[in-house]
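fyi for ur records
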Amino acid sequence: MKKILLLLAFGCLSLQVWSQDYDLEALEATFLKNNLRILAARYEIGQAEAKLAQERVWPNPSLSLDNVNLWSNSTVEEQPLLFGKFGKKQQFGLELEQLIETAGKRKKRVAIRQTELDAQAISFEELLWSLKYELRIAYYQLALSKQELRLLEESMESFTQLRDLYAKQAAKLHVSSAAYYRIQSELLSIEKEVFTLRSKEQEALGQLKVLTRMANLSITDLRFPKFQLKNLPKSYDHLLTLAKDQNFQIKLQERNLIKSEQEFQLEKANAKPDLTTSVAFERGGNIMQNFVGIGVKVDLPLFNRNKGNIKAAKNQVEQETAQKQYLEQELEVQIVHVYQELTRLEKLILSWDDQEAESGQDLLSKFRKQLTEHQITLLEYLDFAQAYQNAQQAKFGIQENYLQRYEELQFLLGSGTQGYEN
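which gave:
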């Protein structure tokens, strides 16, 4: 007996360990840890950091060795020995050169790389939120499809019982065969809807599996909360201010504008020639036996003053400025549209809740009882059953649309979107 109790206890403990329910928060935590696209995007940030570090490095100096004689002739002038017995008839030259960039070119390139790193970080954040958006939409689809499936399965069970009842009655000629076929047709229609809905359910579940890298995830592992309306502000004015500061596309475009301005300044700096300094040592090649000299080399800007690149960079600044203004205008239109649609959906959902004085399922049960007692006709029952089912499916569809629009608003607002939920 004790062994049986121990086995039962161990079995219960194992079920608690291996079975886990995932709500939206748990799915997002797993997604952040496992998603391959996020892991790959982190490497892109690392690449941008490496390019920034590389840009900070000064150019290497160059060392050249020339005018080395491998043999000598009768006209050679003997030189003092360099070391040992070597160097009496040896001639060669050494030169060390270092490029010095003027007008702060290196600092300007470093600033451009820093802007590219900032843009890469914003792109990573945008990718993160876009994948979160996909995950939440798939989760909401599964939550509402589960309710709709329950509704259809209840209807399918009810019509299956009616079909069996009418099949017996039709065989005894108590009801017409047309009535039986009418119920059979309605049942087939419901079964088709169930099949379609299950296909969509599997598609959404597959998306969750890909995003979280949980191949064994099933619908039974998911926990869905009761539908609730979100806290929306009374007007969209504050949302517009938030969106202009936090929207990913706007922030990326601001970095593009900053980068174009930095590139414009770099092209202006490129019009100023760089300096190349040198230190040279020459043995036996001049009137001095061991000559050491310094030098400076500079390009003369007589023909190429980089005017074309400067003009192109200036035009790029104007283009990025116009693109930023366009994106801000487009974002404002999108925010207003989504907010107004959300408020309309919210009013519609609230009106439904106020009008539900009696459960439609209870009414459907009463109608079915009246049908079996021949108090109403089959057409009256079918009419009410279809109206009830359509109304419930419309309700689920509007709830799903509401949640999708809310997540769309969240994405448009960008990071820190919970700031307006007061």
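The first strand starts at residue 62 and ends at 66. thats all i got for now
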